[in-house]
Fold this sequence. Notes:
The longest helix of chain A is centred in the last third of the chain and has 16 residues, at about 165-180. The relative contact order of chain A is 0.18. Chain A has three helices and ten strands. The radius of gyration of chain A is 19 Å and the shape is globular. In chain A, a hairpin with an 8-residue loop joins β8 and β9 (about 120-135). In chain A, about 20% of the residues lie in helices and about 45% in strands. The interface between A and B is large, with 65 and 65 residues. Chains A, B: Keywords: Hydrolase.
Amino acid sequence: MTRPLPRITRTTTVARTRIFRVEEVDLTFPNGVQCTFERLRRPPRGAVMIVAVTEHQQVLMIREYAMGFERYELTLPKGAIDEGESPLEAAQRELQEECGMGARELIPLCRLSLAPSYMDHFMHVVIARDLYPASRQGDEPEPLALETHSLKDIEEIIEEADIHEGRVIAALYRTQSWLARHSQG
Amino acid sequence: MTRPLPRITRTTTVARTRIFRVEEVDLTFPNGVQCTFERLRRPPRGAVMIVAVTEHQQVLMIREYAMGFERYELTLPKGAIDEGESPLEAAQRELQEECGMGARELIPLCRLSLAPSYMDHFMHVVIARDLYPASRQGDEPEPLALETHSLKDIEEIIEEADIHEGRVIAALYRTQSWLARHSQG
Lengths: 185, 185
């Protein structure tokens, strides 16, 4: 698109903690309107989320403590990309740390963002197939409970386990769609 | 589940800006491991996202400037719930402000979260049907470009418009699934 972008006239870091950095940004929109927005800056290398699918079209999920909601939640394995790692290398490592499995096939599926209007965070979603047992010690405070669920009825998984994380739901549906389009192979 | 939760031993606000508040939380996990996590606290009332569907199964989408990525993005109408508003009232208002349409039918579909491991943000997703022209002045810095897309091929919308927001993708798929289950009505 050739639509002109708002002009950024000032960017200032207004808060910084161990893991968060907040910026204040002054903007002038193409119509002349001036605004000040805040945005949260992401960690330098982004993150990965892994949809590991067994030969029986089951997906590996974990129950992990969610600090935001103070409860255990069913989710997909994921984690930050370490320095020097590619997204696929990070996916292989996280899968081994969180699920005790390695994958002979890793397929980059898509990237998912959080809240583009005030965050620049993104996560690489990677499909993992041809799995084999392979565990590696991670930095989890406790062992994660591993579960497998059928990818055939995503609505059922979501409703039974009360899954509400947008990225997890998006990754499950997009994987289902990808597998449907690539199952003739 | 009867699984014991980690014990929170201290919660301190470590940063506060106009729209963000960061907390530091000390935890003791059931196995005795102690951790300090950070989390971002949400605005008090949460937000709404509206999937407005026409009688021809087209969904209303807008192109809006995304401060996180410094570009215009195709997204669903959404916004914060105002004081004293219910989620459905906020959905009706945002739809009129951002799309110039009202809805005679509003159906609460689900709630979506961002990153449960370090945020407690959630958004109510509302399906809007039986639409009629009705516009209201909002607080947008510029008029939003309105587009309609067929709900039949979500993968096509996502790929053509490079949609990456997890919540938008999740809301489109869950709406498609809801409509498929309720189309006999």
